[in-house]
Amino acid sequence: MTLLYIQRHIDPEAQAITIEPRMVVIHWTGTADLESAFRIFDEERAPRERWLLYQAGAVNVSAHFLIDRDGSIYRLMPETILARHCIGLNHLAIGIENVGGPESPLTAGQLAANAALVRDLKRRFPQIETLIGHHEHNQLRTSSLFREREPGYRTEKIDPGENFMRALRVRLKDLGLSDARSRTR
Asked: 0.85 cut: is pTM over it?
């Protein structure tokens, strides 16, 4: 299902589901606890009740990492396999989901865990040069990084929010990672 998704949305000639990570996208799950967040990603097939998601491809949403409210990090899949987490950027982005949302703001433990994880990813994948929040992905629509073959397949997101990303970028300033604004200049 992942290969079919890639062929439909990114590259009709694709023969593999691997990626070379060049970006990290930070998300929140919109759930208040680890168990409900994990259930979202545990199914291989997109749920039919999420019709717009299912209509765009049978493979479920996914992420490479899930960070619990206490900062515990769970690896959900290899970093070099495509995860369906950010329209237009899945082909080059590692997705990090954080348990929480508007009703359960992200925690200091999650901030520290995200910083440590991004540092580790940058060390293991030196070609990573960009860090964005999911809410910033549409700013990259006109960049060479964005690849989505279906013009109407777009979303607007608010996660994880400006404050969280600002605090994360302060902690990671020494890595020199670009953000969405600097990628479109």
From this structure: yes
